[in-house]
Amino acid sequence: MMDLSLLQALEREKVLEVLQRDKLLRSAEEERIRRLKMELQEIRRKGAKSFSRQYSERTCARCQRPLGKFWNSGAVCRGCSHRICSKCRVGVSTLDWKCTVCHAYREVKIKSGEWFLEEKAKKYPPDAENCETTGEKLLMSYQRLSHIAVVPPTPPPSYDAPPFNRLAELKSLKKPFTKSMEDLMVSISSHMRRFSRSQEDVRVEQDLLTVVKNRRPSFSPKSLSDTDINKSSPNLNEGPSLPNLFKKSKNDDQSCSSSGADEELSLGSEYLEWKRGCSIRSTGRDSGFLEVSNVTGELELAVAFDGDSSCLEVTVKRCRNLSCGDVKRKKCHPYVKVCLLLETSRCSKLKTPVKRNTTDPVYNEVLNYQLEPAMLSRTALEASVWHSGTLKKKVFLGGVLVPLEGLVFQDRTTHCSSWYSLCPKPECSEGGAAEPTAAGELLVRMKFTCQSQPSWVCDTDEVNFGPSHAGQLAVLITGAKNLPTKANISQNTYVKGYLLLSGSRELIQKTPVLKKKPSPEWCHQLLYSSVTPYDLQFGTLELELWDHTPFSFSDRLLGCVRMETESSWRLLLQTPNVWHDRRLPMQANASGRRT
Amino acid sequence: MFSAVSIMTDGDYDYLIKLLALGDSGVGKTTFLYRYTDNKFNPKFITTVGIDFREKRVVYTASGPNGTTGKTFKVHLQLWDTAGQERFRSLTTAFFRDAMGFLLMFDLTSQQSFLNVRNWMSQLQANAYCENPDIVLVGNKADLTDQREVQEKQAKELADKYGIPYFETSAATGSEVDKAVITLLDLVMKRMEQCVDKPPAEPANGGGATKLEDASPDQKKCAC
């Protein structure tokens, strides 16, 4: 593998700039692929025989309509071997066809570029680093070597290099770098300590997982970074509370019967207990909780779902580079705890056995959960690594949160295992319910620009996009005023704008993060291209003000505002190419947001 | 500037196709791509530092079963530009494996650049994602007729030997530039269909079909 050290400094910078641009393109691509796979899942859900019900042979597997004996008797799809009626077939001829689901599956494989990855993997088996492209790999290795992440001048929040990752990467470096690394580690960890102290002042009791709010998880099983997890944590608090649909697998001999009642505390509350006490103290039960000062290492998990038996299979493979649980005695006896988090509850805790005296334990333990397929999308998997100390004293070595939504459980072979960087426990964050409903105002200027031409260069016949009246909506976020301020909290705010158009088109733009300003001023333009006036008339613009919290699982929603009625667009559309000033009052909680 | 970013980073396209231009230094890879993406010509020679890429979106019309025009798709092209200089070689070749198709370029006014096509081919075989990737041979600077050193017949023969299409282009005039890229795109689009259709389609549902599927590839192999 080549590196960039042979290049001169200026050349290196140039190459890195290119790699950064490539990274932007890649993240847009990942988002697109995620959407594709979600759509596929939707198609599969709609057109699949449910395994819980018995069907007679004589129904179409897709639309479930009865099939005749002599005419419209259906035919067997070559892809899935199901009997399909003539209406649920896609294909070029009467002989060469596939059922709708097989067809959709094939389309996704092509459109997502999966075909290419598969072909490439035949010649270049994917390595441990799990990088898909050379550019990605190069960028990562460079960031690791240079101590300082290469960040473009004004990065939108999603492109911020994840701090935990950097930390983990730094720690995993080989010996020669350790000296300078150590310096950096000290600065990072002290920064983290500072952060946690200021957060602690808030003292709002809130379960750390219930504030997570994000309806658009950008989850990609291929490249899991902590920020991915941040963004993709499914909404665990909203929505109607569903009955607890899963139960522990009966034949599961791994259940934590031995630890019994003292295990009732979940990971999150364990941590909070400890946090509140600010020291090691008994929690009323005979176990104390501690967290290692520097969480390092990774955890390898494989998640598979068998729709047939409604069985979620979590394979805890191994960990590497864990922090030492008992620094004084230089001992580490790690075990992994897995917890399913539903909207309303967190339960079904399963654990691996303890491995003694290792920071790179190998488990290969399969933990099974019974889970209704419908619940998958609302469930997250929390995996944490603990050191089992003397006198039942547990030390938290790190954890990850893996939302199951977005994981496409196609078949076991394609969903191979992934490495997850372990994170420290997030701080208790305050959220929704405690806040007042008014949440300040957002100052924006808006303009609709009509373009006679399509928005991108067209010089030949083959470029011909969209209706000719397509225009561009520019939303200049100037600032936010009268934000409810809370003592001791400095907010790192950014604005995220969603433009939702008919046909479930959805355009997302973000401003950069502004650090620690009570009345932030961005003057950043969100641009939505290829938008027709018709689109806009029935479209919805949603602007959300977020607090970027780098050391917690989720960013915090401070307020949001929607523009959706026809009247709110009218002026804008009647006088295009002119800036319109708007003061938009925000609402603090979900009431202003669509579900 | 912002608009450029927002246009290029939205995910409103059906395919992301990554192509890569390679060939000796100075054959005109950068100007060729510049002509293709921006329809402009820059006569200045600025050597490419390591790697670069340009983007363009096109509409691709799939050909129907009997020559009819089929569906249209939006294709986002990522066109990688590589440095021809030897000292960047290890860097540039590492990027070969991520490209789905290749524009192998030489300079019609330089016999040496043509002779090196053979070397580039072996570089491709060694470093591309597979042994026989989709390649288009491009002889550039066709407008400089008085300085021509490579004859069309000669180049055509070489291309035939490799079984790849050949185009004589001019980034200065723009002639055949689009055609070369579109031909390559077409090859890549066809290959992806083949790649997906070659093995029996995987089951969309788990359950009983899975077992059937597991067994069949082995049977196929045995039969060969």
Automatic annotation (TrEMBL), chain A:
Topology class, membrane: Peripheral membrane protein
Keywords: Membrane, Repeat
UniProt keyword annotation of Disulfide bond present: no
Single GO term (MF): neurexin family protein binding
Coiled coil location: none
Entry protein name: Synaptotagmin-like 3
Annotated segments matching region Disordered: 217-262
Domain RabBD: 1-119
Keyword check for Repeat: yes
Signal sequence extent: none
A Pfam family annotated for this UniProt entry: FYVE_2
Residue ranges annotated for the C2 domain, each copy included: 295-420, 450-580
Principal location: membrane
Polar residues bias spans: 220-238
Subcellular location: Membrane
Spans traversing the lipid bilayer: none
Gene Ontology cellular component annotations, sorted alphabetically: exocytic vesicle; plasma membrane
From TrEMBL, chain B:
UniProt-listed Gene3D superfamilies: P-loop containing nucleotide triphosphate hydrolases
InterPro entries referenced in this protein's UniProt entry, alphabetically: P-loop_NTPase (IPR027417), Rab27a/b (IPR041837), Small_GTP-bd (IPR005225), Small_GTPase (IPR001806), Small_GTPase_Rab (IPR050305)
Enzyme class per UniProt: hydrolase
Subcellular location: Late endosome; Membrane
Region (Disordered): 198-224
Listed GO MF terms: G protein activity; GTP binding
Record key words, sorted: Acetylation, Disulfide bond, Endosome, GTP-binding, Hydrolase, Lipoprotein, Membrane, Methylation, Nucleotide-binding, Prenylation
Pfam families tied to this protein: Ras (PF00071)
Any one annotated GO CC term: late endosome
Catalytic activity: GTP + H2O = GDP + phosphate + H(+)
Major localisation: other
Record keyword Cell cycle present: no
Membrane topology note: Lipid-anchor
Keyword Disulfide bond: yes
SUPFAM superfamilies attached to this UniProt entry: P-loop containing nucleoside triphosphate hydrolases (SSF52540)
The enzyme's E.C. designation: 3.6.5.2
Biased composition (Basic and acidic residues): 211-224
Similarity-based family: Belongs to the small GTPase superfamily. Rab family.
Name this polypeptide is given: small monomeric GTPase
Organism expressing this protein natively: Esox lucius (Northern pike)
Organism lineage: Eukaryota, Metazoa, Chordata, Craniata, Vertebrata
